[in-house]
Each structure stands twice: as structure tokens, then as C-alpha cells.
Amino acid sequence: MFKKILSFFLIFLPINAFALIEVDITRGNLNPLPLAVSPLSIDENSRISFEKILKKENIGSEISIIVENNLKTSGLFNPLDKKAFLQAPDIANLKPRFEDWNLIKAQALITGKVNFVDDKLRVEFRLWDVLAAKEMMALAFTTVPNNWRRVGHIISDKVYERLTGEKGYFDTRIIYVSEEGPKTQRIKKLAIMDQDGANNKFLTLGNELVLTPRFNPASQMVTYLSYFKNMPRVYLLDIETGTQEVVGDFPGMTFAPRFSPDGKKIIMSFAKDGKSDIYTMDLENRIVEKITNHPSIDTSPSYSPDGKYITFNSDRSGYQQIYVMKNDGTNVKRISFGNGLYGTPVWSPRGDLIAFTKLHKGKFYIGVMRTDGSGERLLTENYYQEAPSWSPNGRVLIFYRETKTNAKGEGFSAKLWSIDLTGYNERQIKTPTDASDPSWSSLLSN
Amino acid sequence: MRLNKILKNTLLVLTACLVLSACATKKEVATDIKGQMQGDVYTGTDTVEYLADGVPDRVFFATNESILTTASRETLRAQAAWLRKNPGINVVLEGHADERGTREYNLALGERRANAAKDYLMTYGISSDRITVLSYGKERPVDSGSNPLAWSKNRRSVTVKAN
Fold first, then answer.
1. Measured between beta carbons, which residues in chain A are less than 8 angstroms from residue B66?
2. Of A82, A127, A148, B6, whose Cβ has the fewest other Cβ atoms within 10 Å?
3. pLDDT tens digit string along A311-337?
4. Are A20 and A74 members of one domain?
């Protein structure tokens, strides 16, 4: 749906020959790149038209604020204070006076303009290398005015990609479980929001318990666990149409669902008679296949991005550990051997790492290890946190964290947090209610 | 010199008081938990309800375990006897875990605990047709505390009348 609305074209070819600024994202970024986001310029007629439709006084400034926030929260960029800018936005977009931008120590500059054309929003923007005094990229978009936030996210992705050499993750959404009420009787609803917390929307009413929503990497479908009629089953939800259907309707509990990378299968656990095994269901022909067969608990399955392997959680050794097997269930290998318990393995979209939750000596950690179990790295430690989900470019993890209650059992909260793969840039993602079980979508555009 | 001695004595008395009172509070807390837990299995009756006179509705488990304790087996035998006397009643066994585990694993663990109770009821003559198992994982604690005693109350399987 979004792709159809957003017509997207190049006005100039990006100039790749002079890639002078580059941001290294593989190390912890202690020196974010100073950059200036000049407000997108707007002529008075366009400004008035957009004010009527969108109730925003200056949509050009609003879009540039989105870009600024995105780049700032990535931890890789340091957007400079607009008060220090010497050049007016419209003139800067024609030809920046590089000495002025150099003076305030900006290494990169983003300029642009917004027009109201045939009831549509037309945005053009340019990225400049200040030190080399060169244009690095110029793009234009035309879309319906209501899509203005997405334009800000797409510009952010383009800038991120041009400066880091990797795809961005800003034009994405997060699905999660909204939580309210006392800890002993939590009301849980599915909710969805833009990656930056905007456009929050509730998808269920809270009449039944819902858990662990996960995006289809190939479409706007979601799979989750619902206790509808007190029967915990895996469901499928189309977030565009609101249609729901049960997919794991076996005599027992189905849970821990995830999509295959091509979005055509759901992999999940099925619990019966005290043992949990892993199954797949083909969404087209509904054929069910049993993947593991062991008296232990086998759960939290997650495919490798090429679909050839599955990582999962099992207590077949006596305690919760992480395993990897082929997609047909053969060649099962334990990969976690450190001290403590390991759970919730999730394969990185880049394929090289598995993120997990670890419990050791009463503390919970979010960490990553290579797919053979080597190179374990713990990113964050807390009283309780779990359920990491990868950004589509595999650079950031989102997870949830719960607080310890006091002696009277008060003070409980659950919040979403994100952290860079480097272990830096940990930050809370604001939600209108308490929140848990986040899942990051793929990029909505391109 | 004399003053010194008096001061010294006072100090001794004071220290003794402090030591004693510290001991007293520590001991009190220890017995409090001890009275309600064996190992880390809850043995108290705070949260227990009764299906009938002398028939407790729930059994408790050790961390990460689904093994029935001697006390749990006794409770389940009482439940089985009561169910045999009331053949028209069906039950749901609701399995739960504490908050110190990942959500999906705890769902499976709750299911395993409720099934341990189900298996035991079946060996005492209760047909599996009368028993439904439902795991809540860590979603429905009875005690919202973040301490070992609260967690021990939450690791449970509760037998609930279904009709």
C-alpha cells in the first residue's frame, strides 16, 4: 500500500566518485559526525496549503526535525544547533557557502525544499560534503501530504546509507505488546508505532491476553500468540486489513511463532503432554511439518536469513541453552557454553550473529554470539530484560526491560529499549503505556 | 580514668545491644522465609484456596523444575479422591512460572508443570477427558513481589473447576 502511494524518483544521480566523508559504524561511536540539517525551505503559498491540510505551521521545519532526531538517535551523528546557522535555508539549498558551514564545524550539510504541487507534497533534498565543498546526493519525492513523516524517515535512511555505506532503518515500524494494570492482572494489547514512537495505534482491545507479535519480513503481516477463549494459539494478523485467523489450531498450546525469511512459513512451538517441539506450517497449503522430536522443551525458533538453518532454545542438556540445526531438524548442535542460562535466540538479518538473552547469577543480559557460538559479547546487564529484535540492517537491537518491585510489590514497569550492536547508545523508546515484546519491521520503502 | 571506664562500659553495652538487635532482626526474617519455604519450594498457605474441605487447589515447584514434592503429591491425592467423589466435575490445571525466566520458555515450563500434576491425577484414576491443561507462563503471578518468597508462590499449578 505504502509503496503505491509513494512515487519515488531521482532528479540527479548520486555522485559516488568523491566519497570523502565516511562514518565507521563497526566500532563504538564516541565521536559522532557533526552535521547541519538546514530546515527545508518552503514558499509562502505551499506553506499555507500544507498548514490547512496538516495543521502544521511549517511542514519544511517539521520534516527536518524528523531527520535531525533520527540521525541523532542513531548515535552516529551530532546534528548542530540551528541557531548557529548563518545561511538562509532557501539560499543554502541552491549553493551552500561552505566557509560558513565549516565555521560552525559541520562536516555534512542537508538542505532541501518543499512544494505543494497538484495537492501533493513534493520534497527535494541534497546532502553536501562541507570539507570537500561538494554535493554528495540529491533526491526528490512526491507523495500524499499525510505521508510527510515517512518522507523525513526516507531522507534519514538515504543520508545514513550514503554516509555509512549500509542501509538505514528509519522508515520502519515496531509492533509490540502494550501493558496496563496491576502486575497480577495485566491487560495486554497489540500496538504498532513508527520506529521513532510516532503514530502509535492499538490493534487489539485487551479482552484477551496477547503475546510475542512478530513481523513478516516480506510483508505487513504479523504473527502472535493470543489467549482468545482461553486457548493459547498462534494467530496471523494482516495489519492493513485487520483480518485475523488462527494458524496453530492443534489440541495443545501453540506459541513462540516467527516467519521464515521469505514470509511463506510460520515456525512455532507446539506443547503437549509436558513437552514442547518445533513445527513449521506452510501458509499456502497449510502443510504442517515436525522439525524437532525430543522430550525436552524446544522453543523460540528463528531462521537464518537464507532459510537454511534454525536457531532455537532447548533444555535437553538439563538447562536452557541455544542450539542450531538445519531447517529439516537434522545436525542439531549446541552453541551456548558460557556460564548461566541462555534463551530467545534471534538470527541477525546480516546472518553473522545470533542475539540472545542470558541469565547468570540473578542478572539478565542481552548479548550476541557468532552462529557457531564463538565470540560471545554481552551488551547490557539489568534486573530483567529479554526478547531482542534486530533492526532490518542488523545494527541495532530493541528489547524490553522490567523493573524490580519494592517490598510491597509496587513499582513495576516494562519499557522498550534499544542498543547499538557495539554496546553503545542505549536508549529508551517512549510508549504511551508500558510495553514489551517488540518486533522490528523491514524497511517499508525500497 | 574512671570516666574512661564508664565510657568504655557504655560503649560495650551499646555494641552488645547493636549486635543483639541485628541478630534478632536477621533471625526473624530467616525464620519467616524458612517457615514458608523448603529449599525454594513454597510450603506456606497464604495463597492457597480449597476445592473442598481439606482439598488444597494448588501445588508448588522449585525453580526451573516440574518435579512434584511429597507435599504436592499429597495435595494431588486429596484432589483425586475429591474428583472421584464428584464425577460430574471437570478441571483445568493452570500451570505458572515465576518472572525470572524468558517468556516463551516459561510458557512451556508452565505447561510441563500442569502436565506433571495431570499425570499424577491420572495415576489416581482420574480420566484425562476430565482434565484440561492451560499454561500462563509468567503472565499471571499471584504475588507481585520481586523476591524469592514471591517467586516461590508463583511457581505453581492450580486446579480450577471447569464447570
1. 274
2. B6
3. 999 999 999 999 999 999 999 999 999
4. yes
Burial level of B110, CB count in 10 A (0-12/13-18/19+)? buried
CATH number (domain holding residue A327): 2.120.10.30
For chain A, the domain total comes to 2
Look up residue B68 and give its DSSP letter: P
Q: Which residue of B has its CA nearest to A318?
A: B64
DSSP A196: T
Top-level CATH class of B39-161? alpha beta
pTM: 0.90
Measure the CA–CA gap between A169 and B38, rounded to whole angstroms: 51
Q: Domain range for residue A147?
A: 2-164
Query: CB contact, 8 Å: B158 with chain A?
Result: no
Q: Which of A164, A192, A223 is the last residue of a domain?
A: A164
Interface with A, mutate which of B64, B105, B113 (most A CBs under 10 A): B105
Together in a domain, A126 and A232: no
Q: Note whether B103 contacts A405, CB cutoff 8 Å.
A: no
Q: Do A315 and B105 touch (CB under 8 A)?
A: yes
**Does A211 contact B at CB distance below 8 Å?**
yes
Categorize the per-residue pLDDT at A250 as very low, low, confident or very high, splitting at 50, 70 and 90: confident
CA B127 to the chain's CA centroid:
27
Q: With CB atoms and an 8 Å threshold, state whether B140 touches A182.
A: no
Contact B145 A276 (CB under 8 A): no
Give tens-digit pLDDT for B111-132.
999 999 999 999 999 999 999 9
Determine contact, residues A278/A291, Cβ cutoff 8 Å: yes
**How many CA atoms, within 13 angstroms, populate the side-chain half-sphere of residue A433?**
21
Distance separating alpha carbons of residues A346 and A236, to the nearest angstrom: 20
Q: Which residues, 6+ apart, have CB-to-CB distance to B111 below 8 Å? A: A253, A271, A274, A276, B95, B133, B135
**ipTM exceeds 0.90, yes or no:** yes
Note the pLDDT of residue A248.
79
**Which of A132, A164, A196 lies at the terminal end of a domain, its last residue?**
A164
pLDDT digits (tens, 9 = 90+) for B69-95: 999 999 999 999 999 999 999 999 999
Cβ separation B115–A274 shorter than 8 A: yes
